[in-house]
Write a structure and sequence with these properties.
- The protein has a single domain, classed as Alkaline Phosphatase, subunit A.
- It is about 25% helix and about 20% strand.
- The chain has helices at about 20-25, 40-50, 95-105, 150-155, 165-185, 225, 255-265; strands at about 10-15, 30-35, 55-60, 75-80, 110-115, 195, 200-205, 215, 230-235.
- The strands form 2 sheets. Strands 2-9-6-1-5-3-4 form a 7-stranded mixed sheet. Strands 7-8 form a two-stranded antiparallel sheet.
Length: about 270
C-alpha cells in the first residue's frame, strides 16, 4: 500500500490496528477492504511512505512522535498533537486528536489531511484497560518504578500479571474508544475519508513453524497480523480540491521531550 498515492482526501490512521480486530469492532458505515502495509512498525511506516519525498499538498496531524523524525519540509504542515500529551494516561487521547483534526480542516480546506491517532496502541485508556498495570500508564512519571518491559513483552516472556485475554480485550477496547470519538467528527469532514492503520499487532500468534507465541510489533516481521490493515472508505458526495503550497515554518522539535514520549509508548529512541 502506497499511502501518499492512494485515493483519499482525509486519511485517519489508527496506530497498530489489525484488520481482523477492526472488522470485528467497527460500527461505522463504509466500504471495508483489506490492504497490505509496507511496514510492521511506525518507524518503518514513515520511512516506507514519506521519507525522501515532499508532499506539500498534505498536512499531517500526528499523535505519534515518530513523525518528528521526518524532515521538516516533508509536508505543507506537520501538526504535533503529541505536544498535548496526557501526563496521567501517558498518551495522546482521541479527544485531543479530534480537536486538532477539526482545527486542521478549518485552517487547510484545500489540503489532504492525515489524522494519525495513537489508539488502539497501548497505553490502554478504556475503563477496563486502565485497570491493567502496564507500561505507559505512569501518573507519577516515575519511570524507575515501572516494569522495564511493555505489556506485550510481559506476555511474551510469561511474566505478566494479567491474562492474555484481559490484555487483548483492553486492546479491542482502545479501538472502540477511538471509533466512538471519531463518530462525532467524521460527518463534518468534506471529501473522501478513509480509515486505515500504519501496521497491525501480534496477539500471541506463532511465527512460522516455531510454537512460540509472539506479541506486539517488531521491525522487519511481515506476518499477516502485522501487515494486513483495514481500509474503510466512508460514503462521500464529492472530492475535496487540493493544492500544493510551500511548507509552513514551525519551531524546532524538543528531542528530549519526544524521546520521553516514545519511551512511554514502548519505543526506545537512540
Amino acid at each position: 500500500m502506497d499511502v501518499p498515492r492512494a485515493e483519499w482526501d482525509t486519511l485517519v490512521l489508527l496506530d497498530g490496528c489489525r484488520y481482523d480486530t477492526f472488522a470485528a469492532q467497527n460500527h461505522l458505515d463504509g466500504d471495508l477492504s483489506k490492504r497490505y502495509s509496507q511496514a510492521s512498525t511506525s518507524s518503518e511506516f514513515f520511512q516506507a511512505n514519506f521519507h525522501g519525498e515532499t508532499y506539500h499538498d498534505m498536512v499531517y496531524v500526528s499523535a505519534n512522535p515518530w513523525t518528528s523524525e521526518l524532515p521538516a519540509d516533508t509536508f505543507h504542515d506537520q501538526i504535533p498533537a503529541y505536544d498535548a500529551w496526557d501526563e496521567e494516561l501517558q498518551t495522546v487521547t482521541p479527544e485531543v486528536m479530534t480537536e486538532a483534526v477539526r482545527r486542521a480542516h478549518e485552517r487547510y480546506p484545500d489540503k489532504r489531511i492525515v489524522a494519525h491517532y495513537m489508539q488502539p496502541h497501548y497505553p490502554f485508556i478504556g475503563e477496563r484497560g486502565r485497570e491493567l498495570d502496564h507500561r505507559g500508564y505512569a501518573p507519577d512519571g516515575d519511570w524507575a518504578a515501572m516494569d522495564s518491559y511493555s505489556i506485550w513483552a510481559q506476555l511474551q516472556f510469561g511474566i505478566s500479571n494479567h491474562s492474555r485475554s484481559a490484555v487483548i480485550e483492553a486492546y479491542r477496547e482502545n479501538l472502540r474508544v477511538a471509533l466512538r470519538e471519531l463518530e462525532g467528527v467524521l460527518g463534518d469532514i468534506d471529501g473522501k475519508v478513509v480509515l486505515s492503520a500504519d501496521h497491525g499487532n501480534m496477539l500471541g500468534e506463532c511465527l512460522g513453524p516455531l510454537p512460540v507465541p509472539v506479541y506486539g510489533h517488531h521491525d522487519g516481521v511481515a506476518t499477516p497480523e502485522l501487515i494486513q490493515v483495514p481500509w474503510l472508505e466512508l460514503p462521500y458526495e464529492r472530492r475535496r480540491e487540493t493544492t500544493a503550497e510551500p511548507p509552513v515554518e514551525r519551531a524546532g522539535v524538543d528531542s528530549e521531550r519526544v524521546d520521553d514520549r516514545m519511551r512511554a509508548l514502548g519505543w526506545y529512541p537512540a
